[in-house]
Write a structure and sequence with these properties.
Layout: E1 9-11, H1 12-16, H2 53-67, E2 71-74, E3 81-86, H3 95-104, H4 120-130, H5 144-157, E4 163-166, E5 178-182, E6 208-217, E7 222-230, E8 233-240, E9 260-266
Helix pairs in contact: 3-4
């Protein structure tokens, strides 16, 4: 069941639970592959040129956020609920915008599918594909844990890999990184996904959610991240950092609205792109 926002306050965990459980393995045969690059589609009409892939993906994130009406939610450390500070366009109002994301991972969806099937990983994948990030660096997929597994596999054999996973206490998030959290599956149980563990014992990919960091103000202890399928839109989540610039990790994982599991370091980044002021 998808979550419909009504009112000003909603649990972030409830919104992330709207993300559908990743695909199950087939009844016969081995676990599903994490990466299917032959399915990727880069739309030349929307693809960004140039080799500054870090700037491209942040610019695309802002462009899609703007397209969806700049929906924004504020989440304060220690608070289970968030506050909607700006409402945007919802997926059911413009399902054709969401369908673009699915085409990027080779899984076309009908209009009827859009409110039923989670699209947050397809959104991140579309951003990466359109930004010109090579498949060998980031293999887009319909589930976050799928592309996280491919990143982890590459970084273990290549110390200079363009993306690298770190536990949230090991690195300060920067613009262009991904911030990733566990979420609950269809059974209501919080996923035990962690760096290096992306599937359950049966080979099914574990539920998770990632957003793209687009703004960091360590002086104000604030982080801004844009993600898809958050409150049924492309949404900016405004989150708290601690005094040293790290994500605030809750003590009670079961009650934490964002049980952080990883930061995906984006090594393509150079100087941070110009900051886009909120309006």
């Amino acid at each position: 069941m998808r979550v419909v926002v009504a009112g000003g306050i909603l649990s972030l965990m409830a919104m992330l639970a709207a993300c559908q459980t990743p695909p199950r393995q087939a009844a016969r045969g081995g676990p599903p592959p994490a990466c299917s690059p032959e399915k990727h589609f880069r739309d030349p009409a929307e693809a960004m040129s140039g080799n500054d892939r870090a700037a491209n993906l942040v610019a695309l994130s802002f462009m899609e956020w703007d397209r969806f009406g700049r929906q924004t939610w504020r989440y304060r450390a220690g608070a289970r609920d968030g506050v909607e500070t700006r409402r945007g366009v919802r997926e059911t109002e413009r399902p054709d915008w969401v369908q673009r994301y699915w085409r990027a991972v080779g899984e076309p969806r009908s209009v009827e599918d859009i409110p039923r099937v989670a699209w947050s990983a397809a959104f991140v994948s579309w951003i990466m594909v359109q930004a010109g990030v090579p498949t060998a660096a980031f293999c887009g997929a319909p589930a976050h844990s799928m592309y996280l597994e491919t990143i982890w596999t590459r970084q273990r054999r290549d110390p200079a890999a363009p993306f690298a996973l770190h536990p949230p206490a090991a690195i300060r998030p920067s613009v262009g990184d991904l911030v990733c959290a566990a979420r609950r599956g269809d059974d209501g149980v919080l996923s035990d996904i962690a760096v290096g563990r992306f599937r359950d014992p049966d080979g099914r990919f574990l539920p998770s959610h990632c957003d793209i960091v687009v703004g960091v103000d360590r002086g104000a202890r604030r982080l801004e991240a844009i993600g898809g399928n958050v409150a049924d839109s492309v949404t900016m989540s405004v989150l708290d950092l601690d005094a040293e610039g790290f994500l605030v990790v809750g003590r009670d994982r079961e009650r934490d609205p964002r049980p952080w599991i990883a930061i995906v370091e984006n090594r393509y980044r150079r100087d941070p792109p110009p900051r886009v002021a909120l309006r």
